[in-house]
Design a protein that fits this description.
It is built from eight helices and six strands; from the N terminus they run αααββαααβαββαβ. The strands form two sheets. It has a four-stranded antiparallel sheet with strand order 4-5-3-6, covered by helices on one side. Strands 1-2 form a two-stranded antiparallel sheet. By secondary structure, it is α+β, with helices and mostly antiparallel strands. Its main location: membrane.
Length: about 240
């Protein structure tokens, strides 16, 4: 049998250690994700880490360090597809980026273990766990800071619901008033709501505004005939 000719006890032990280390470290990362009730939990992170370790270990045994480097490149791109599966878009919000990044790091931990860089794999696991746990209070503290529209870089939109027949002149007036206030318009889109109503969305070029100036534009446009509702909003893009 080919197995009897190729089996090497030392190589087998080396593979077992690599896979065991990847399993344990993947369990540590996945347990934290499971506790947080994330989409990719304990089993997913363990399988990613062990799978990456197995591929890299196989390449190391077949083609040495050169083969391992090539396999690692494919592991990185392959995990990108897996991570995309846990990212979900809900309106303007995107969920799952942290989970996808954690999967990516689990693959890196497995790759280190497969390449027999055990100490590096353990160190990376510590950093991953620290990023997902120790930084959480800092994130919550930052999120509680009141949003400052003037100092932030964001996308600003003027939105109004208006009668179809009144839309063209009021839209032109909106653009005119925004440009007069030194807020040029990047794009204007019209969304059909009903047979008689449309929503006009004007996206500004500016990434920082004075709230009172936009409020003044809203006040002037809201008084025009046919305008049912007028407001402006800000959304971050990064």
């Amino acid at each position: 049998m080919r197995l009897l000719q190729t089996f090497q006890l030392y190589d087998f032990f080396d593979t077992a250690v690599s896979l065991f280390v990847a399993f344990v470290l993947g369990t540590l990362i996945g347990a934290e994700r499971q506790y947080r009730q994330r989409t990719a939990g304990l089993r997913t992170n363990v399988l990613v880490a062990v799978g990456a370790a197995a591929f890299v270990d196989l390449a190391m045994h077949l083609d040495g360090a050169g083969g391992a480097v090539r396999v690692i490149a494919y592991v990185v791109s392959g995990i990108g597809f897996l991570g995309a599966g846990v990212i979900m878009k809900e309106g303007l919000n995107i969920r799952g980026l942290n989970t996808a990044a954690t999967l990516w790091c689990s693959a890196a931990v497995g790759a280190c273990a497969g390449a027999d860089l055990i100490a590096q794999a353990i160190l990376l696991t510590v950093f991953v766990l620290a990023g997902n746990t120790m930084l959480r209070p800092l994130v919550n503290a930052i999120n509680r800071i009141p949003f400052d529209e003037h100092s932030s870089e964001a996308t600003y939109e003027m939105r109004m619901t208006i009668d179809v027949v009144a839309m063209p002149p009021v839209r032109d007036l909106l653009i005119e008033k925004l440009e007069a206030a030194n807020y040029p318009v990047r794009d204007v889109s019209v969304i059909d709501r009903t047979d008689d109503l449309v929503e006009v969305v004007a996206t500004l070029v500016s990434s920082s505004v004075e709230a009172r100036e936009l409020d003044a534009v809203v006040g002037a446009i809201a008084q025009q005939p046919g305008v049912r509702h007028m407001t402006w909003q800000v959304r971050t893009t990064d």
